[in-house]
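User: Second chain of the day. Same drill as before.
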Amino acid sequence: MMNIIEIPDTPDHRGASTGASRRWIIIFLLLFCAAIFAKPYSANPLKFKKLAQESALTASVIYQVFQDRKGFIWLATQYGLAKYDGYTVTNFTHIPGDTTTISDNTVRAICEDASGNLWIGTSDGLNLLAITPAQQRGQSGHRFIRFRHSPDDSLTLCNSDIRSLAAGADGALWVGTVEGLNRMFSDTLANGEVVHRIQRIHKPAVFANGYITEMVQDHLHKNIMWAGTLGKGLHRIDANDLAVLAFSKNDTTAMPISSDYIISLYQSPEGLLWIGTYRGGLNVFDPQTGHSVQYRFDENDPNSLPDDRIYGIAHDAENRLWIGTFGGGVACLSNPIRELPTGNQSRIDGHFIRYQSNSRDPQALTNDFVRHLMIDRSENMWVSTNRDVNVADLKPPKFLHISQNPFSDNTLGDNNVIAILEDRQKRLWIGHHTGLDMQTPDGVFHNYTIDHRNPRSQGGFVYALAEDRFGYIWIGTFGGGLQRINPSTGDFLYVPHGEKNGHVYPDSRIADLMFDSRKNLWIASPLGLYLLNNQQLADVKLNPESLEFVRFTTDSSEGGMSDNRISTIYEDRNGRIWIGTANGLNRMNSGNTSVDLHIDYVPKNPEKGLSHPGVTSILQDPNDDQVFWLGSENGLNRLRFSGDRVTGVQHYFDREGLPNSFICDILDDTSGNLWITTNKGMLRLNPSDTLMQNIRTYDTGDGLQSGEFTIRSGFRNAAGELFFGGINGFNRFFPDRVQENVHIPSVALTEYKQLGVTVYDALELSRISHIDIPYDARYFEFTFAALDFTYPNGNRFAYFLDGFDKNWSESGTRRFASYTNIGPGKYVFRLKAANSDGVWNEAGLAIPIVIRPPFWQTWWFRLIAVLAILGVLALIYQYRVEKLLELERMRVRIASDLHDDVGSSLTKISLYSDLLREEVDAENRQTLLSRINNLSRELVLTMSDIVWSIDSRNDTIGDLLDRMHDFAMSALSPRQIAVSFDVESLDDAKKLPVDIRQNLYLVFKEAINNVARHSGATEVRVALHNRQGRFTMQVHDNGQGIELAKKSSGHGLRNMQMRANRIGGELTIANSDGTTIQLNTTML
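Assistant: Same format as last time:
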């Protein structure tokens, strides 16, 4: 049935008020004829999805929709540029003061050049989207390079208001403005820099300042570019020499174009140029002859163009031409001409199917003012209007959806469809919540209200339908009992219900009806099973009061039902009757006198029985008589029989792949497949696939009436067509004609995050060669998209991190993959996707990932660490060697000291002892004893000094100062020599090496001994200073001077000099007002 929508007259519209009345009469007649002659199986009217309702698109006026080579959708809007990946919209807007943003928010044109660069034309300049992955988080990885008109530069655009863009076959970008045409070349220099050259097209003069509305590259002649203008006609431009040939409505040819105001262009595969004009209709132009013919709007012809303002032209895979009009919506020309007709006929008629807005139909166009049409690679048509983008799937529908149209009299009476039947006359009967409908083969609906207030019918919802041998339709209602309708007259026959006058009639609530192969009528109700034998139905003129029904219940004397609540009835290929109840499955015996088999739900041992007691549907396997499929309120059951014994039971739930575990109905098709409806969609199953590995599920995205179907609403007609009812009408289809979407979707990464922060967006991810991840980014995540826009939410994904994952992870419709605590190394993230019909892009995409190790796990750090360890070991070894050498040197020095001091003293003592033994003179003996005594005392002191100097407990400067002070006092005080100490900048707690401590002390001791023994001084000043990086020890006395000291010193001065040299010091002796001995060395 065709929808005819009146478009009111406006000052810029066609028609006059005098034609309005005629138009309304015509529309009325068309509606009347459509209601009578509408075809039942005509193609579904297009259903338009609204992009703004499914995404974050904020703009209402859309000037152009463009699909790039990767598959992304780009939208030119009045509020900037937008990118759509099927799930989210990314907006690019002008920001004043930021030269990296788009130059203006009014975007008019989008084009992609041969290198894949995206160019955007705005009302204030041309923009190139440059993509450079950000170097730091928070930075933008893309910017817009602007090109504008400059009055003083002829190498700039002729105007900044861009209206059209086209990619030439020679790689040039053609730029149409409101004041002429430009051609831009992009050259790559040796250093990789890209420079752009702009060339203005000046000739002819009338063309130089033209308003270029649309351009198209001639695909048969690569050097030809066609340009449409606003008011200056059509122009053919030769890219080689820029020769221009103009075509106008004023041409002298017999068949010129109808208008010089050209809005849209399209070239057919045959080379014909389809020209959309403003108020001149649709022109078909032959470039070889310069002739054209026109399709025009005709108010008296509902099959003509809906409007003469043509803003969009697109061609689909079915060779249909789609026309977008500014005021008349969208029109489809199913058989566009391939060559111009002969003769001088300038106007031809065409059969256009109109698709227009309807505020009462949410699936119609939002607005009839169409600005652009685009058909994407998966055959979805994008319609840009003044109110949102509308998207329609142009592929043949899998399932025809019939639902109630509240704005038509020729429609389904109610959307809650419970029972469906096609009779022998190809009339379709539909039972629903408000009654019964019959649709004739030519598409006319007859509605019957099942209402007890109507004398021709009795009340109740229609739950079951069955046709008898005479072609009468028996109706099972829920509340109105059993009825029969005569299709020829529409008269109803009412069968009493309950027990009356000694007769048993069926209950008023009928759940199912079935005529078996013997012509017996079986009736299911909540009070049991009823049978009306074929003898009573042999006469078409029956008396309902005299009918005798046999009732089977749980109280039947033998072979009773497992439950009185009968839900469904089924006859197998052997003529056996199966009964589904609220408490299991029953089978009647061969004589149909009693139940001979019960199969129950066994909660404690579910593998021995049904998955749920409530049986909803029964079907014998089309390929195996011993297998039955049972639908239940929780699960699908497969039962294998051997005689009367169940030998195998299998249960299937949503975890096995069913869309839902509540099974509504099961039908088989001519190929032996099972079609199963549930409370959440439908599935197709090959019954031999007992592991459920290749099931195909369908949902509303595939055209189902809704996700929820009704119990026992399925029907298969003689031609193999299947029908299923639900809560939003019903579906009908031939299973062998269900076409899958064969488009292999492009796969794209849309976002990469580290620790929840976005690092790269989709544009950046399309340009980078790999992803470098620091070791401390313990959590990273990819978001992705499959660029098939038929039903994006049904697209499926699988991913694999090569080097980490062992198997592919199928994420279903989930669009992200995340990883945590992945070790350092090189990986490859692989992604593949399928469209909503399960067609996979097996090639997918792959992006290398490098997770950097922490610096302590890098090879260079390990090398440095090994070298450092070796160095430390070498230092330790060297230190130990030096310590051993130092110890050895200390031993040598101690030995030397012992030899020099102790050995010399012991030698002297030994010599004096020998002399004493031989001396007889008492005075001499006393002298010798005195010398031995003094030498012994000195020897004890020398040993004490040596022991003190090597004792580690005396290793601080404070210990050294104390020792010096004690010795000076003990040596000088007995001789009445005063001593004073001046200590400056010395740290008492600082430790001194043993050799430093020993030699300093022994130099000091020798100096004090010299003062005590030889100087004749009365006063000694000792100065110990740390100054300017040097240590100074000075011993000054006021004695007789160095000359006398030299005579009596022996080898003491030489010992001091030797010890000063050992510690790298410098020893000086001065004779001025006494003697000054000074030692200078490095700072302590």
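The first strand starts at residue 48 and ends at 50.

User: Great, on to the next one.
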